[in-house]
Amino acid sequence: MPRPSQSVGASDSSAGDAPAKRSYHVEALAKGLRLLGLFSEQRPAMKLSDMAAETGVPLPTAFRLAATLVSEGYLEQLPDGAYRPAPKVLTLGFSALRGLDLVQLADGPLRRLAETTGQTVNLGTLSDDCVLYLIRLRNSDLVTANIQVGSRLPAVSTSIGKMLLSGLDDAELEGRLTEESFARATGPNAIRSVADLRGALAVIREQGWAVQDEELAYGLRSVAAPIMDATGTMVAAVNMAVPAREFPAQRLVAELRPALLDTCREVSRLLGGS
């Protein structure tokens, strides 16, 4: 009778490095992470049947995975049977975000910007076709957007997102965006097509900053500027968000853009950029 170690060794040696790497993949863990990844700002809770369908796992398997995540504190079950992320998920996310050099280095300059201007300041980076918010310093007067650290919003409808998308070439842009990317914004001036977006991105590349004018939601405007690393790569962007009723677009650009650009240059220098 062959020993177990012999069969494993034969498999590894006959197939090269790729199967050996695949042997480290824990499928049950991957499936559990895929369940957690289903939840978003637009979908805060899900039925088990929907979770199974979205991930492609059998319903009994989805049930066992969800039950395990509940017992470990990462999911909680609602009275109607649906599941939603539990607070333990947030603590993991915040710990990871706070550990990023970018967040640590940007925190001080962004706080000074928020305190000096009295406006909401956000730092975000691209995540698929969305902006992932890494820092959120909120002015209590801004009531039109329920955004938190960890929120993901459509890149095509945010000033941070458009700023970051302007750094992509055509192939990267096409690969990142879908029709759904343009369907999630509710603002009256939302961009609805790649063709319209290309024109807006061309302007942003030329001027070096971006504006969102009631594209994400009614009553919200913002202006964004880039954060560059030591290689000259745009790694993130910062915006200042204001109530549209108080800040016409011209006032937004004239009054807030200069301080925003100065702050972004300061953070870029801290990252080794120029």
Write the layout of secondary structure elements.
Elements lengths: L3 H12 L1 H6 L4 H10 L11 H8 L3 H13 L3 E3 L5 E3 L1 H12 L2 H17 L2 E8 L2 E8 L14 E3 L4 H7 L4 H7 L17 H14 L2 E4 L6 E9 L5 E10 L5 H22 L4
Antiparallel strand pairs: 1-2, 3-4, 3-8, 4-5, 6-7, 7-8
- In percent terms, what proportion of residues is strand? 15-25%
State the helicity in percent bands. 40-55%
Main sheet overview: 6 strands, antiparallel
Q: Label the structural class.
A: alpha+beta
Total number of helices = 11
First-last Cα distance: 66 Å
**Major beta sheet, strand line-up:** 5-4-3-8-7-6
Provide the CATH architecture of the largest domain.
Answer: 2-Layer Sandwich
Could you characterize the architecture of this molecule?
This protein is an alpha+beta fold. It has two domains: 24-90, Winged helix-like DNA-binding domain superfamily/Winged helix DNA-binding domain (Arc Repressor Mutant, subunit A); 101-270, GAF domain (Beta-Lactamase, 2-Layer Sandwich), CATH 3.30.450.40. It has eleven helices and eight strands. It has helices at 4-15, 17-22, 27-36, 48-55, 59-71, 87-98, 101-117, 159-165, 170-176, 194-207, 249-270, and strands spanning 75-77, 83-85, 120-127, 130-137, 152-154, 210-213, 220-228, 234-243. A six-stranded antiparallel sheet has the order 5-4-3-8-7-6, with helices on both faces. A two-stranded antiparallel ribbon has the order 1-2. Strand 1 (75-77) and strand 2 form a beta hairpin. Residues 1-21 have low confidence and may be disordered.
